[in-house]
Design a protein that fits this description.
With 602 residues, the chain is of the alpha+beta class. It has 3 domains: 190 residues, Heat Shock Protein 90; 170 residues, Ribosomal Protein S5, domain 2 (2-Layer Sandwich), CATH 3.30.230.10; 171 residues, MutL, C-terminal domain, regulatory subdomain (Ribosomal Protein S8, Chain: A, domain 1, 2-Layer Sandwich). Helices cover 31% and strands 23% of the residues. The strands form 6 sheets. It has an 8-stranded mixed β-sheet with strand order 5-4-3-6-2-1-7-8, covered by helices on one side. A 5-stranded mixed β-sheet has the order 9-10-13-11-12. A hairpin with a 5-residue loop joins strand 22 and strand 23. It is elongated and about 95 Å long. The relative contact order is 0.09. The structure holds adenosine-5'-diphosphate and magnesium ion.
Length: 602
């Protein structure tokens, strides 16, 4: 074939494909336009997952009659004048492509009326061709209906998924915008059914309830942070550690209220939960990053879902710190909240904890703090009362046991199963897992020593030889520095008959001084090889966690009263007494009210 210029309609369809990938992309563009138009209320309708029809209505500024046809020209926008403007974009749209793109691949009707105009303008396009233009009666604002999306692009049509899947994508878009703009009332109707709705109160918390449900929203914590030098401000809510999910889907970031996907920000949030979440579980995070628009490039991709920061590190740091502080302040003590299962009170180590305890909902402070939130930049901070706090304190089940992040003072009663320490606190019974608690203590001790480069190491009188199989030897080789950092002194000695390597152990971490050095090292390497450390991003931390696990008191070890008191005292002194470094709880709470209920006293 010889080279020739593509016919205009083919070029338009190709270009449209960049912006409009699926029905949800249409919803995204139309909602963005409505937000940019200053709408207070945005109504979205979809039929058959948006394949049949997508309709978005807003009560925003509207488009003057004279400009309506122009809005469908490619690169026609009212939001950008010059290249310089690109560096301080404050609107969601600016490329002037969306309406043209959607019109090229559907049958589109737009009806729009600015408040100052008597009548609305109605325009109809099919496959990008203007079919009609006239006036109509309509309320102020804009309505866009996109019918039969991709009817003229069979290749795209083929790739659309089942109606329910496409409807799910639409719901995701609408709910995310609702989080970003809590002062706008959103409704979504899918095949005549209202599937999502917010009240536009301006309270992010209300939007959280709409998205996650009340139960979950109540376990979200206010997160705030700023970097004064760069002016970066982070605000929003993060889930308490008890709210983990199997995927990263609910780690949601906005930058200047634009919903974006950014691996590095996700990572910052995940790391903030380090040692608080079980293996391969992810937190819920809803955070907005306010940053000088000149510091970000949103013009990286036609859908604007990815952006570039000029200084990624600052933002990473502020996000991580804000999240970490919220989480540290509120790691809950799981409380015995629901009746024991019929199988009886199996408090044994094989009991499935999740089935018989649920995390305490009572975290004084976390609800009250909501008032300080968030997204306030846009002048939305209404005076907030904490609507749930009253509820909470009146419910005996939810009586507040402890200050957030801290432990209540505990009196040791005794030990059961050579595994759990029974203690009494201001509000009932606290059961402490002696192993998990000791792990937390040792871990924080070791981290503190490492921070001061003063890890205690114990020289062995006689070096001990161990022979390591190839897999383990490889770990030692790769992580020798980290192993040395925690107190090991190892020296390769030579090959072994089975192609492993022999090592001489000259020193061990002091906390392992009592252990058989060879076995301790092998145990730690086994744990490393197993890879079951949660979310630990740095090998040296994995090693630290493993060393602490090896060194800590085990189940089956009888403790004296004095030892138990000392353990509890040291646990109190830790920064995060409520979880072990693996993210499991160190203690479980059975409140006085719960006890009374179980015994039929109330
Ligand atoms: P962009 O949003 O990038 O400017 P679009 O193609 O989405 O490009 O829209 C083109 C123009 O049409 C916008 O700049 C705006 O002036 C106008 N417009 C589109 N949708 C609306 C709406 N819902 N309310 C008011 N004006 C709108
Ligand atoms: Mg737009």
């Amino acid at each position: 074939m010889s080279i020739r210029v593509l016919p205009a309609d083919v070029a338009a369809k190709i270009a449209a494909g960049e912006v409009v990938e699926r029905p949800a992309s249409v919803v995204k563009e139309l909602v963005e336009n409505a937000v940019d138009a200053g709408a207070k209320s945005i109504h979205v309708e979809a039929q058959q997952g948006g394949k049949r029809l997508i309709r978005v209505m807003d009560d925003g500024s509207g488009i003057p009659t004279a400009e309506v046809p122009l809005a469908f020209a490619r690169h026609a926008t009212s939001k950008l004048m010059s290249v310089e403007d690109l560096s301080h974009i404050t609107t969601l749209g600016f490329r002037g492509e969306a309406l043209a793109s959607m019109a090229a691949v559907s049958n589109l009707t737009l009806v729009s009326r600015p408040v100052a105009q008597e009548t609305a303008t109605r325009i109809r396009l099919e496959g990008g061709q203007q079919i009609s233009l006239g006036s109509a009666g309509a309320p102020a604002g804009t309505m866009v209906a996109v019918e039969n999306l991709f009817y003229n692009v069979p290749a795209r049509l083929k790739f659309l998924k089942a109606d329910a899947t496409e409807a799910g994508h639409i719901q995701r878009i609408v709910s995310h915008y609702a989080l970003a703009f809590p002062h706008i009332r959103f409704t979504l109707q899918s095949d005549q059914r209202t599937t999502f709705q917010t009240n536009g109160s301006g309270e992010l918390f209300d939007a959280l309830v709409a998205m996650f449900g009340l139960e979950t929203a109540r376990q979200m914590l206010v997160a705030n942070g700023r970097d004064t030098r760069s002016g970066v401000v982070v605000s929003g809510y993060v889930g308490s550690p008890s709210l983990h999910r199997g995927t990263r889907d609910q780690i949601i970031f906005f930058v200047n209220r634009r919903w974006i996907q950014d691996r590095s920000l996700n990572q910052a949030a995940i790391q903030a939960y380090h040692t608080f979440l079980p293996v391969r579980r992810y937190p819920i995070v809803v955070l907005n990053v306010e940053v000088d628009p000149a510091e970000v490039d949103i013009n990286v991709h036609p859908t604007k879902a990815e952006i570039k920061f000029r200084d990624q590190r600052v933002i990473f740091r502020v996000v991580q710190k804000a999240t970490r502080e919220a989480v540290l302040g509120a790691a809950p003590i799981p409380s015995y909240g629901i009746p024991a299962p019929s199988s009886g009170e199996d408090f044994g180590e094989h009991a499935d904890h999740s089935s018989w305890w649920q995390p305490s909902l009572a975290r004084p402070g976390s609800f009250g703090q909501r008032g300080e939130s968030s997204f306030g930049q846009f002048g939305l901070e209404a005076q907030r009362t904490a609507p749930f706090s009253q509820n909470d304190s009146s419910s005996p089940l939810l009586a507040a046991p402890a200050r957030p992040g801290k432990m209540p003072p505990l009196r040791v009663v005794g030990q059961i199963r050579q595994m759990y320490i029974v203690t009494e606190g201001p509000d009932g019974l606290y059961l402490i897992d002696q192993h998990a608690a000791h792990e937390r203590i040792l871990y924080e001790k070791l981290m503190a020593q490492k921070a001061q480069a003063a890890v205690a190491s114990q020289q062995l009188l006689e070096p001990v030889m161990v022979e390591l199989p190839p897999g383990y030897a490889a770990i030692v080789e790769a992580e020798l520095e980290a192993l040395t950092e925690v107190g090991f002194e190892l020296e390769a000695f030579g090959g072994t008959a089975y192609s492993g390597t022999a090592y001489r152990i000259r020193a061990v971490p002091e906390m392992l001084a009592q252990a058989d050095p060879g076995r301790a090292l092998v145990d730690i390497l086994a744990e490393m090889a197993d890879g079951a450390i949660p979310l630990a991003r740095e090998t040296h931390e994995k090693i630290a966690i493993t060393v602490c696990k090896r060194a800590s008191i085990k189940g089956g070890q009888v403790l004296t009263h004095e030892e138990m008191r000392e353990l509890v005292r040291q646990l109190e002194a830790t920064r995060a007494p409520r979880t072990c470094p693996h993210g499991r709880p160190t203690m479980i709470h059975l409140s006085a009210a719960q006890l009374a209920r179980e015994f039929g006293r109330i």
